[in-house]
Amino acid sequence: MSPRLLAYFARSVALVAFFSIVDSSASAQDGGVSCGPSEELGPIEVTPSAGASGVRLNSFVRVRYSKDYFLGAGGPTETISLTLDGAAVSGRTELAGNDTLYFIPDAPLVANVQYQGTASGAVFPFDFDFRTGTGNDVANPDLRNPATDDGFVVTSSAVDSDCNLPGSRRIRLEFTSAEDDGPRSSLEYWIYLSRGAGLAAPRLLARVRDYGEAVTTIGAVLGPEEAAEAACISVVVVDGVERSSGWSSPACFDPQTGTGFVGLCAASPIRGRNESGLLGLLGTFGLLGVLVTRRRSRALTRASGT
């Protein structure tokens, strides 16, 4: 495996392995808890996003499949193909975790051209296209901290749904969208509960793509135990080449009212906004570092066939 491929793949495996430790029970955008398993079976999201423009030349293709799509598989039979003017782009497909497939081109993308691609699936394929810009993605996304973000708002309301236990609360988080040197549509926000009643480990609440607005909104549901006392949340943003940044400290609030902070939690902060990938994430949860490293090592071993 080439050093370039290994660097990309190591970052991707680290991100997927880290967040596979936590329970992702809320859907992005509306944050509602599903009453049953998703009926989707196959690829559901691609980065760069379909129709994206200004894609950086060091980008690769990341396709997220339905939850645990590859679980138990000896190796993926699915493929990601990329073409330029009808000719196949040379590259390699790699699996990370149980639901994410990567296509890493053997050479940088060509500037100012239109690419077409297809991700295969057991039930249906996923077709996409994007247009490149010029230059490489070299900077981490810039995400403001809640204390300095005039657009930051967190509210809470009762959940009126048969899918949730009595006493659950729906939280709504608004914050100023991040800036990046790549296309905004490639940014993805991950919101997680970093402290709360009965919380044994950080729990991923929702993930949502940047939809081009000045303010990003994410909804999620807290169970009755988690909503019983002060909770802390944090946000990480990941760009199209796996660079990431996040809040330097989690924001804490009362889930029963959703208004007014109760101070900052005594939790390890995400290390500086200019640190990327695994380093910044492990600054948040140092105690989970060993688990991430072990999962990454096993995934890399499987991928390399050794």
The helicity comes to 10-25%
Broad shape: globular
The CATH superfamily label of the largest domain reads: Macroglobulin (MG2) domain
Classify the beta-strand content into a percent band. Answer: 25-35%
Q: The CATH topology of the largest domain, please?
A: Immunoglobulin-like
Total number of domains: 2
Record field, number of beta strands: 17
N→C terminal distance? 12 Å
Uncertain segments are 1-10, 12-34, 262-306
The strands making up the biggest β-sheet line up spatially as: 2-9-8-4-5
User: What is the oligomeric state here?
Assistant: single chain
The H-and-E topology, N to C, reads as HEEEEEEEEEEEEEEEEEHH
Quick structural gist:
14% of the residues lie in helices and 32% in strands. The chain contains three helices and 17 strands.
Q: Can you describe what's shown?
A:
By secondary structure, the protein is α+β, with helices and mostly antiparallel strands. It folds into 2 domains: about 100 residues, Immunoglobulin-like (Sandwich); about 140 residues, Macroglobulin (MG2) domain (Immunoglobulin-like, Sandwich), CATH 2.60.40. The chain is about 15% helix and about 30% strand. A 5-stranded mixed β-sheet has the order 2-9-8-4-5, with no helix packed on it. Strands 12, 13, 15, 16 and 17 form a 5-stranded antiparallel β-sheet that branches. α1 crosses α3. The longest helix is centred in the N-terminal third of the chain and has 18 residues. The N and C termini lie close together (about 10 Å).
